[in-house]
Amino acid sequence: MEAPKTLQEAVIFFANPDNCHEFMMKLRWPDGRVLCPHCDSANVQYLPNARVFKCYQKHPLQKFSLKIGTIFEDSPIDMSKWLPVMWMLVNCKNGISSWEIHRAIGVTQKTAWFMLQRGRLAMQDGVHGGKLGGECEVDETFIGGKARNMHAHKRAEKIQGRGPEGKAIS
């Protein structure tokens, strides 16, 4: 199975539920050994009619799908829509907008925004949550309101001129 090279190929390839299933299986369990996301048991069987897996250990959530434990969990959107969106997110070097997803995939703009936010969340650095890490150098700044935005009597008592008086240095 070769990965799609263009958006058109991705949409056509992932339109087939069997291709989506096989692709996700290889991503989630590269060694081919399916593990229950709740108890990590390998005593799991695929139920093709329901398109779910069943764990034969005793716990309340024995049946699970490929979406469980991923950003696709709790989403009613089909994998045939999710996977082309993820392809777009990874392959478009200038980024994509929710309107672009809306037009390309054929979902509402609100759904496209939801998918885009989930995709961006998945692409964040797991250690730092996508925020700056390590040493950062910043310049000092003066924190406080502009004099022209203050009420006249507050301005008179707090700020004299345009300088840093009445402002905190951070």
Q: Could you walk me through the main structural features you see in this protein, from its secondary elements to its overall organization?
A:
The protein is mainly alpha-helical and 170 residues long. Helices cover 38% and strands 8% of the residues. The chain is built from six helices and five strands, in the order ααβββαααβαβ. The strands form two sheets. The protein has a three-stranded antiparallel β-sheet, with no helix packed on it. Strands 4-5 form a two-stranded antiparallel sheet. Strand 2 (52-55) and strand 3 (63-64) form a beta hairpin. Helix 3 (79-91) packs across helix 5 (109-123) and helix 4 packs across helix 5. The longest helix is centred in the C-terminal third of the chain and has 15 residues, at 109-123. The N and C termini lie far apart (55 Å). The mean pLDDT is 82.
How are the secondary structure elements laid out?
Elements: H1 7-14, H2 17-28, E1 44-47, E2 52-55, E3 63-64, H3 79-91, H4 98-106, H5 109-123, E4 142-143, H6 152-158, E5 168-169
Helix pairs in contact: 1-3, 3-5, 4-5
